[in-house]
# Entry
Amino acid sequence: MSSLFRYIEACGSLSPSEAMLSGADFLLLSQLAYADFPESAATFGDALEGALLLPPSPRRFGFEHKNDRRLIAETAKSRRFSALAFLGFREKFDAEGACQFAALALQWDEETAIVAFRGTDQSFAGWKENFMLAYRSPVPAQALAVSFVAEIAERFHGSLILCGHSKGGNLAVYAAAFSEAPVRRRVREVVSLDGPGLSPADARRAEFLEIRDRVRVYIPRASLVGLLFENPPGSVYIRSRAPALQHYPYMWRIEGCDFVPVGAPTRFNAYLARTLRRFVCGMPPEMREAYVEALFKVVSSAESESVPEMLKVWRKSVPRVLGATLGIDRETRRLFRRVFWIFLRAASGRMT
# Structure
């Protein structure tokens, strides 16, 4: 049984006043942000019941649908979450514009609202937007995150806590840092759950430095995602039950009502993260953009919009992708070679 389900069993009967917010609470809310909700509802329980009536997202794998729907149903019955006021849900998906965004907001108590941002789904648009973090700021989802937080801040006048898993963690940090100053001052805490950090340029800006001490980052010990780009120092490393699925929230270890901490990331993952950062920083932004465009030009030859969709027709999609790679133009091949050598130099620089 997933630790998230055990957490609901152990702590779901505790009201917000009976137990302080924990990392497990933020993980649960961030995981629920992968579901689609009605835009408005009186309580979070009503919104969760509404989510069960909506068709499952085609951009999620079947095993994720099963776990997500069970988590929705069990959270809807819990005393801890069901009676919370629901402040809204927003979602935007634009395959052409490489935009994949969703967020929900609820009122935790009289003084605090929580905004949970969705991470990357299995759409190619979502993955392309992830890659765009390497050369563009803001990406579309980051701009939408700032807008949604401003909307919630206008309707709710207390403190704000922003959280998210994967890219959702990046959106939470970005929205906290680059909201208007009056909103930024109301952000009490930011929780990034294995989310990539900000770009080096954004991490040096005064707005981020103002909120940096309010950012809490949780990273499974052998995960790579949360080590990418620039997260603040002091990340908390935690245990996951699945060596090959460290990023997957349902595998994170929870004992009692919180995560199980460990001392540090694995040496290999720390090395790999440093190598990737050196790799990205070694390319000028225009080369990063050209590389991403070339990569997704090849991926688009599969004529699918998501990984699950492509895998359903893999006998057709895989040969198309391979054919596109073989038929790639000389300039793009040269670009791939240059990127490959930059990566090798970055890796060898650490080994010497």
Summary: The first helix runs from residue 3 to 11. The chain has two domains: 3-270, 282-351. DSSP finds 15 helices and ten strands in the chain.
